[in-house]
Amino acid sequence: MEKVLLSIIAASVLCVVSSHVQHQYHFVYEVKNMTEAQSYCRDKYTDLATIDDMEDVKTLIDMMDLNKMVLDEDGQATVWIGLYDDVNSWRWSDRHAEVEFKNWKKGQPDNYMSVEHCTMMLTTGKWNDERCDRTLRAVCSSVRGSNVTFILINSTMSWTEAQSYCRTYYTDLATVRNEAENQEVKNLTDGEWVWIGLFRDSWKWSDGSNSSFRYWASGEPNNNGGKKACVAMNFNRSGGWGDWTCDQNKPFICYKEIVPKHKMRVSVKMNSALDLNNPEVMEEVLKQLKQRMKEKGVNEDVKLSWMKQPDGKVFHKEKKKTAKKDEL
């Protein structure tokens, strides 16, 4: 196919779709528990609300209709959003380890104050969940084929620092696969609490979003009672968030994904007699337009497509304008 030169003359309409997705929020004032609310949002919209920044918080505060709101047992206007604590996501730092063995101390893990996402071994050999920024000694593992050696590190560090150290100098933080290995690690601890490689995810969004924005109210999250794993927005506390037990019934906020679209009228001038409405020609023109946009620094996430006009065609040849003759 002959090369199409883009300089711009036959009229057409181009649809520009940005991959930057916008959220359109919807309040549902019927009360449901977190699981029911999630199912409802996924069925009717996209998912429970993900909140990305303070602009979203302000938008939701403005949208809330207090006259429709069902207050909670404390007389507060609280609604479910999509954030939850994934308390069952325990896994080993060594990505290849698929180990079911656990040796928790009685009553553990308890996720005290909703901040305990890492695991330490106590002097008894039992395990306890702990906040990851605490500094302890750690046990690394060195794996050579089927042989595993455990190494106690002398210096104290956070769990994340210990993970990095073990991966740099050995294989990883210790994976404890059975009672025998648990006893072996216990014998190394020298009467101290130590990090092992078990950890879990903390707060997650229902839709899998990686938004790191948080807007906790003062004193939250607190996990009072040890079973608070779901998050509600409290309009009596300026929209601040708190953790709640997931079986409580509350109104909730869903969102629907809106992908912005823009129409642009463009013209193309060709160096040949090719039919611009030929699908192959249109595809070639699109490729050149995308390249031009890339050269101008336009985000590569933008998608381009042609829009057909009422007669089914994309391009129409523009009529040449003729200058009027001066009247005598």
From TrEMBL:
Location of the C-type lectin domain: 20-141, 145-255
Membrane-crossing residue ranges in chain numbering: none
Recorded superkingdom: Eukaryota
The protein's name in its UniProt record: C-type lectin domain-containing protein
Residues of the signal peptide: 1-19
Coiled coil: none
Keywords of this entry: Disulfide bond, Signal
InterPro entries: C-type_lectin-like, C-type_lectin-like/link_sf, C-type_lectin_CS, CTDL_fold
